[in-house]
Amino acid sequence: MADHFFSEDPASADVRRTVQARIWDRDYEFITASGVFSRDRLDLGTSILLREVRPSGSLRTILDLGAGYGPIACALAVELPEADVWAVDVNNRALELTGLNAAAAGVAERVHAVQPDDVPDDVVFDELWSNPAIHIGKPELHKMLLRWFGRLKPGGVAWMVVGKNLGGDSLQRWLTEQGYPCERVASSKGFRILKATATNRGGSPS
Ligand SMILES: C[S@@+](CC[C@H](N)C(=O)[O-])C[C@H]1O[C@@H](n2cnc3c(N)ncnc32)[C@H](O)[C@@H]1O
Q1: Methyltransferase small domain: from which residue to which, for each copy (predicted)?
Q2: CATH label of the domain that carries residue 136
Q3: 156-200, pLDDT tens digit by residue?
Q4: I need a surface site. Which of 2, 97, 102, 132 has the fewest CB within 10 A?
């Protein structure tokens, strides 16, 4: 199998490097590695999401869906000292890096970097943040989103960044059709920033 960044265990040598990023007026140095998404810099889409959306102070439980090396999860945990952040990914190397980056940011106790199946069944989320793995293909993407949107609390919100040419607009329509009203809150450099809200009309995981 090709060594994509979303492999469970990337076959490529685990060559570490660091990436500098400024998120919500704080400087971070993240450890990244080969076999992990955007190992050379904070991804442009992710940086636009973090530039356009700022978390609010009262959030308790947050999901970073497809955490990679953890920039979103770590910054959310730093910004929200009361919050627990579940950072899920299928790539074990990414999960290890998220753990290291959370420790470096002083938030290791509140960032839970785990495989999707290892999130306890009773955990539900106030918010979901994601630069989702579009490359897994539409059927898998839809299945993944319905699975996790189904665990948003009523009124909970999902913030996502999706490239326009990677189907950002059709994803917005599809989420609305599924019972998660979805609006475009910003558009920049070919990326759509989407906000979807969990209503009691939300679909169940399929
Ligand atoms: C576009 S990357 C974003 C990574 C990171 N959030 C960032 O902004 O740099 C999407 C991530 O989703 C992960 N992924 C792929 N399939 C997944 C799935 N079914 N469940 C959770 N994560 C998945 C990939 O391994 C990858 O790390």
Answers
A1: 28-195
A2: 3.40.50.150
A3: 999 999 999 888 899 999 999 999 999 999 999 999 999 999 986
A4: 2
